[in-house]
Amino acid sequence: MEKRLAPAPETYEQVTDLFDLDADWSSEQQAIAGRVRKMVDEHFLPIIGQHHNDETYPESILPRIRELGLLELVADDAIDPITYGLISRELDRGGSTLRSLVSVQGSLVMGAIKMFGSEAQKQQWLGPLGRLEQFGCFGLTEPDYGSNPAGMQTRAERTADGYRITGSKCWITNGVRASVAVIWAKLDGQVRGFLVETDRPGFEARHMHGKWSFRASETASLYLDGVEVPETALLPGATSLGRALQCLGQARYTIAWGACGAARGCLEETVKYLKERTQFEGKPLASHQIIQYKLAWMAAEITAMELIAKRLGELKAQGRMKPHHVALAKMNNCRKALEVARTCRELLGANGIHNEYHIGRRMVDLETVVTYEGTEHIHALTLGSTITGIKAFS
After folding, report:
1. What is the pLDDT of residues 220-273, one digit of tens each?
2. Collapsing DSSP states into helix, strand and coil, what is residue 158?
3. CA distance 248 to 225
4. How many CB atoms sit inside 10 A of residue 4's CB?
5. Does residue 6 sit within a domain?
6. Residues 196, 198, 200, CA angle at the centre, nearest 5°?
7. 373 flagged as catalytic
8. Is position 4 within any domain?
């Protein structure tokens, strides 16, 4: 029988699940979430602080992800949206970089192939990507076109044997280790998606160093200098920028859930610290009124975040998830998670900036999460357009 992970001094249900939401999940969903949580506690949290400091990739976590078979479930369409959300929550409780590794592979790369690829492309790539035998990356963002991907400069032109692609992409997770890149480029003025094998002549991936956020994540710039690809590299269903944004919608779904996990992790660690740290006549900090007020506020915000994520999962499971649903969840949950992390950092005082604790790392990583896959301002404009019927951007 598998050894059960001993509960923390204050179990996360008591600290962060004040509405008993976890009780709604099936026994199978709870079991999968529990296994991911155990992996995070035993194999990720003990090492991630040093990797964050050193700006290195936590290679040792990859076999653990393989053992759980998370991405194989995605490849086989054997996972429902709520379960995928819970997995994302537990991964992000360890770190946004860990959840991002999985969501880029599963939602962006495998998602693009599943939604828009040919049967041959699915047969070639989904199995190896799901088993982490191969890695993929998603190339949409460009140096001068982040929130406006329609302005992309990457171009594809037809050749006798296929296509020639020229351009650059930036802020690409898993870009250096990727065997295949989903590259979005304009072909005859229309945005199309291509599966580009990264060992082709003219393809170069360079590490982006000097980050103070997402330091343990592999981030790259991609350069394509007349990269020749065969006709079979074209994703037949990736026929517009809207298709690329569909992939982003899948990734934003995992981010909305992941933000709940990041906030949970911060609050769990903070409550434990405040109950152990004494101040003013030997009383634990957790006994003071202002501190309890802040804890109550954070617990309420996390509850609201999880209710939004749960509803988003229900809509996705019913095939009713729309762009404004994802925009609301991503915008709200990322901002609230960042506010929770900052408040927790304050409550730890000077210790909040020390790498003995995970809150500071979570906080700076959330600065990336609140920006990537669509800034909160862009999501707000999506919501504004839905509310008013008037587009404030072109």
Report:
1. 999 999 999 999 999 999 999 999 999 999 999 999 999 999 999 999 999 999
2. strand
3. 26
4. 8
5. no
6. 85
7. yes
8. no
